[in-house]
Design brief:
This protein is α+β, with helices and mostly antiparallel strands. The protein has helices at about 60-65, 90-100, 110-120, 195-210, 255-265, 280-285, 325-340; strands spanning about 5, 30-40, 40-50, 70, 75, 85, 135-145, 155-165, 175, 215, 235-240, 240-245, 270-275, 290-300, 300-310, 315, 350. Strands 1, 2, 3, 4, 5, 6, 7, 8 and 17 form a nine-stranded mixed sheet that branches. Strands 9, 10, 11, 12, 13, 14, 15 and 16 form an eight-stranded mixed sheet that branches. The chain is globular. The two termini are about 25 Å apart. The chain binds 2-OXO-4-methylpentanoic acid.
Length: about 375
């Protein structure tokens, strides 16, 4: 099905203000955003329009009860200049999984993909081509009913913001193994990209930062022994020649980069396992000199090498990422797929047609800033 997305173009672009050699994560937004309203049981008012502030009633349900989630994706350009998405249908599926868990409406996969295609085509000049940089895409949905009763909202907004980004972590990260606070428990919302999961992580992250750590390794809620994820990324360990990542088991985000890495490892015949990882196994492997690498994997993080892991008083110094190591190979494979230098044998890359995007007639005034 083809959706009727009206496009209202910005009068003036902000592109010339961007320093593409210095683009910290999440601070620069491109000219346009996609906005849709859910009302009367359907998605309507589908628009791409200039990025603007929105104004809301203070009773907005998302603000009170956190009915809100997001996705994270990237658009890249091949060296020949063709904009690409990577596995947009997987993101649509994960998004709708988050929506279901939070009692929010699904977005039809075709609408999601068409909105991304049109938005990225319109702002294609915002896609950086410097190594390690990309156009970050942030689809998100939130409840817009203006009422204080605790129930699912009847109305929602779905928005996609985009902005050029550099690497999420500029250098290898130090991780603190958390033994008091919890990110997720089976049956909770850990597998969804619920906004509240991130809110709950901020205080323990602040404590970890005060001790000099960049991120937390979340552990299971009952024993604090099984390693989960690092909040902004899934975790992989290379122990004794084998790549191991924790099984998600409903508590860990099913990362799409994580899934890509598992498929790449399989395709290349690199030994790997998906299973629970006990902290004692990591400590033992370190003590025996068998911990070869540890790294985070995520859309924003791509491959983020870990340089240190601390468990209580025990500090493990993780070897640096070497040029021919497994994490370096995974990073090169993802970057090569994104810039088109590695053929897409996986069928993941989604080229975007950039023939002129048809915009709505100029005369019409469209900046509807209130929720419909
Ligand atoms: C992403 O990798 O896109 C994420 O969602 C992590 C984000 C919290 C920075």
């Amino acid at each position: 099905m083809k959706y009727n997305i009206r496009v209202y173009q910005a009068k003036k672009s902000n592109l010339s203000k961007v320093d593409f050699n210095n683009i910290p994560f999440g601070q620069t937004y491109s000219d346009h955003m996609f906005v849709a309203d859910y009302k009367d049981g359907q998605w309507q008012n589908l628009q791409i329009r200039p990025l603007s502030h929105l104004s809301f009633h203070p009773g907005l349900m998302a603000l009170h009860y956190g009915q809100s989630f997001f996705e994270g994706m990237k658009a890249s350009k091949t060296n020949a200049g063709v904009p690409m998405l990577m596995r947009p249908e997987m993101h649509a599926q994960r998004m709708n999984h988050s929506a279901e868990r939070l009692c929010m409406p699904a977005i039809p996969e075709a609408l999601f993909v068409q909105a991304l295609e049109k938005l990225v085509a319109l702002d294609k000049n915002w896609i950086p081509q410097t190594p390690g940089a990309a156009l970050y895409l942030r689809p998100f949905m939130f409840a817009t009913d203006e009422t204080l009763g605790v129930r699912p909202s009847n109305t929602y907004k779905f928005i996609i913001l985009t902005g050029p980004v550099g690497p999420y972590y500029a250098k290898p990260v130090k991780l603190w193994v958390e033994q008091k606070y919890v990110r997720a428990v089976a049956g909770g919302t850990g597998e969804a990209k619920a906004a509240g999961n991130y809110a709950g992580s901020l205080y323990p992250m602040k404590l970890a930062a005060e001790r000099g750590y960049d991120q937390i390794i979340w552990t299971d809620a009952f024993e604090h022994k099984y390693l989960h994820e690092a909040g902004t990324m899934n975790l992989f360990f290379v122990m004794d020649g084998k790549v191991i990542t924790p099984s998600t088991d409903g508590e860990i985000l099913k990362g799409i980069t994580r899934d890509c890495f598992l498929k790449i490892l399989k395709a290349k015949g690199i030994p790997h396992e998906v299973r629970p990882i006990h902290i004692d196994e990591l400590v033992q492997s370190y003590k025996n000199g068998k911990l070869e690498a540890a790294f985070g994997a995520g859309t924003a993080a791509v491959v983020s090498p870990v340089c240190e892991i601390t468990y209580g008083d025990f500090k493990m110094t993780v070897p640096e990422m070497k040029p021919n190591s497994i994490p370096a190979l995974l990073k090169a494979e993802i970057e090569g797929l994104r810039n088109g230098t590695i053929p897409d044998t996986y069928g993941w890359m989604h080229p975007i047609e950039t023939a002129a995007v048809v915009t709505a007639p100029k005369k019409k005034k469209v900046l509807v800033l209130e929720p419909a």
